[in-house]
Amino acid sequence: MATVYYDKDADLSALNGKKIAIIGYGSQGHAHALNLRDSGMDVRVGLYSGSPSWTKAEDSGLTVMTSSAAAAEADIIMILAPDTSQAAIYKESIAPNLTPGKTLMFSHGFNVRYAQIVPPPGVDVSLVAPKAPGHRVRELFVDGMGTPGLMAVHQDASGNAAATALAYAKAIGCTRAGVIRTTFTEETETDLFGEQVILCGGVSHLIESAFNTLVDAGYQPEIAYFECLHELKLIVDLIYQGGLNYMRYSVSDTAEHGDYTAGPRIVTDQTRETMKAILADIQSGAYAEGWIDENAQGRPWFNQRRADARNAQVEQVGRDLRKMMPWLNPKEA
Q1: What count of other Cβ atoms lies within 10 Å of the Cβ of residue 261?
Q2: Cα–Cα distance, 113 to 93 (Å, whole number)
Q3: What whole-number distance in Å separates Cα of residue 180 and Cα of residue 151?
Q4: Given this model, what pLDDT does residue 1 score?
Q5: Is 135 considered catalytic here?
Q6: Of the residues 32, 108, 135, 154, which is catalytic?
Q7: 273-283 confidence digits (pLDDT tens)
């Protein structure tokens, strides 16, 4: 059974007198910084000079300084910059200021798991990872609730790394919903697998392939969009509320029958073997090595693939249809 911590298991006094630096002010960075501030913590945001987020953070009433200055004066340094920029930020701004007794924190274990960042001895190294996008972490906190999270300790130099991490998790609202104890390895590998096989890679390609199948067969693209993309939210919401059984209970018997008959034809033995191969690449470091190399070369394949995806027919059709539904609060990348 998993070890789960709640508010009663975390003591904010572990952060008393501690200066906390949040490095980065994107989706997670803004949520952590604001939630910590509202919990009474001594927070500063570290950014590079000229960052477009500098004014945003200041407008929210936060103290902003360069990442190097923030790391120098902080007791706890939480890195919330994108995975691909963390190693450079660490080398340039954090490592020179990471003296014994400090705490280095992450919300994703990628750079530690794949040795892009190797913290020195004498510092605590821990992870607190809310299981929600940053805007949701902030919204639920403001509403008096919280998002579930994960907590891990990679290096416990002080003997208090877990207590500090739990206090941090409480200060951003995660212990209101529950925080599961894990490891950097488990968090990183399961997170990458989930993103690739289901949440991003699996779902997006299933949607686009299904859409294209209907369009190629002569059906209207608008109808295909509603059937293969728009209605997905309705199903996901049911699963989110009560699992797969509740979804099957809520849909028609015909839809449930289609689940049982067509599902195994889509997710075949070959699909499951591919999932295992993807997991093996994550575990061995092959995936990380390829992604790191891609970034080192300026992302030529990634940038082309991103451009192609944004111009796909399903995106063009969806953009027009969403404009007809302003209640969705349509967004464009």
Answers
A1: 9
A2: 20
A3: 6
A4: 84
A5: no
A6: 108
A7: 999 999 999 99
Token pair 């130099």 is at which residue? Answer: 157
Distance CA 90, CA 104 (A): 10
- Counting residues of the chain whose pLDDT is more than 90, the rounded percentage is 98
Q: Is 18 helix (H, G, I), strand (E, B) or coil?
A: coil
This prediction's pTM: 0.93
**180-216 pLDDT, tens digit each:** 999 999 999 999 999 999 999 999 999 999 999 999 9
| Spatial CA neighbour of 117 closest among 148, 137, 89 | 89
Cα 202 from Cα 272, distance rounded (Å): 12
- Alpha helices by DSSP H, listed for 267-312, are 269-284, 286-296, 300-310
Burial class for 204, CB neighbours closer than 10 Å (0-12, 13-18, 19+): middle
Is 130 in a helix, a strand, or coil?
A: strand
Say if residues 225 and 211 touch (Cβ distance below 8 Å). yes
Radius of gyration over alpha carbons of the chain, in Å?
22
What tokens does 211 get? 């859409």
In sequence order, what are the residues at sequence separation of 6 or more whose Cβ sits closer than 8 angstroms to the Cβ of residue 181?
A: 2, 3, 4, 5, 150, 151, 152
pLDDT score for 316: 94
Helix (H, G, I), strand (E, B) or coil at 179: strand
Confidence at residue 195, expressed as pLDDT on a 0 to 100 scale:
96
Question: Do residues 76 and 21 make contact, with C-beta atoms less than 8 angstroms apart?
Answer: yes
CB 39 within 8 A of CB 171: yes
